[in-house]
Design goal:
Blueprint lengths: L21 E2 L5 H11 L9 H6 L9 H15 L5 E8 L10 E12 L2 E11 L4 E11 L1
Antiparallel strand pairs: 1-3, 2-5, 3-4, 4-5
Length: 142
């Protein structure tokens, strides 16, 4: 049985509201290997410890887009993918083996344009060590 999504409405939300957060399982080497295959990103810095060490790191690092994917999952747990109108993100720090990625977001603006109602959100991912992604997303709501 498919779980139905209760969609937020424009009128039920206000600036400052937080959307439901999400925490990923700890990133493992297995996670990175699977993501390499799924994404086609086979940069050795993500899977080859010798290469990572030769690049000055202590170990491999997670793909930035893996964390962005977790952020996308958090958002699409709240609204359908079809509601997303614009997405910009910036990678700010590395995600390491063993890190869980905490995804969160809040509403920073509500506006109407051409008869549609939009919400602008600031999203972010964090590990225990650092904020790893900051993003700005615009979604359309009824």
């Amino acid at each position: 049985m498919k779980k139905s999504m209760t969609l937020p409405t424009y009128d039920s939300l206000k600036v400052g509201d937080e959307i439901p957060a999400m925490i990923s399982p700890p990133v493992s080497r297995h996670t990175l290997a699977l993501y390499c295959g799924a994404s086609g990103d086979h940069n050795p810095i993500h899977v080859d410890i010798d290469f990572a060490k030769s690049s000055g790191l202590d170990d491999v690092i997670a793909h930035g887009m893996l964390s962005a994917g977790y952020l996308g999952r958090m958002l699409t747990n709240w609204v359908p993918q079809s509601a997303i109108r614009n997405w910009k993100n910036r990678f700010t720090a590395m995600t390491l083996i063993g890190d869980s990625v905490t995804c969160s977001g809040k509403i920073v603006e509500k506006f109407e344009k051409d008869g549609e109602k939009f919400i602008r959100l600031e999203l972010q991912t964090n590990t225990l060590q650092a904020q790893t992604i900051v993003a700005e997303v615009v979604v359309v709501l009824a």
